[in-house]
Write a structure and sequence with these properties.
Length: about 200
């Protein structure tokens, strides 16, 4: 039996195919372009000219949910719920305590001093509060990285690092918009005997 007929040699010489991560469903609504770099390719919306040189599923989902005006209604509804639940899941995951405290456990003296770290659920609350401040007050998102703003935040809570401007203007903004739109649609579906008209 020569080496080419040996089944063990055949298996060893067979190129191993690593199963990659299954692409998210959002990719079905985008066309890819460009070369794959660091696991990412470019993407272009199938319904409008919007594109990114580095396709990121969260931004793509947010685009279909909020920004794209030509996407079919059922697709928009689907991704609105995805963006809304993603934000809720992040808050819920952060609220789960990492360790159970023993009953009768004596408190450490360091509990009463300022800490350089912050608990995940508190960071989520702070992030949402900062996002609401910037969005509702119409403050430019790039100011979140200004040294004076960072210094003010650090004086209030030493362990909290405010989000980057891009995160604030993209992720948090889209999550809040998705929350508002979904809540409005639920409220409209519950309402009865609505009449739209023009009083003269």
């Amino acid at each position: 039996m020569n080496e080419s007929e040996n089944p063990i040699t055949t298996l060893l010489n067979k190129p191993s195919s690593k199963p990659g991560q299954k692409p998210k469903e959002v990719w079905n609504f985008f066309t890819t372009f460009g070369e794959r770099k660091e696991g990412h390719t470019g993407c272009k919306c199938k319904y409008c000219p919007w594109s990114q040189t580095r396709g990121e599923p969260n931004s793509m989902e947010a685009h279909l949910a909020v920004s794209c005006h030509k996407v079919p209604y059922d697709v928009k509804e689907k991704f609105l719920l995805i963006v809304k639940t993603r934000g809720e899941n992040q808050v819920e995951a952060a609220e789960v305590p990492t360790k159970k405290r023993k009953v009768g456990h004596q408190q450490s003296i360091t509990k009463y001093t300022e800490s350089n770290t912050i608990e995940p659920f508190k960071k989520q609350i702070c992030d949402r509060t900062v996002a609401k401040f910037f969005i509702c007050c119409g403050v430019a998102f790039h100011l979140v990285e200004h040294p004076f703003f960072v210094d003010m935040v650090k004086s209030l809570c030493l362990g909290y690092d405010p989000p980057r401007a891009f995160t604030l203007s993209e992720d948090f903004l889209y999550q809040e918009l998705a929350n508002i739109i979904v809540d409005q649609r639920i409220e409209l579906k519950r309402a009865k005997n609505l009449t739209l008209g023009n009083k003269n």
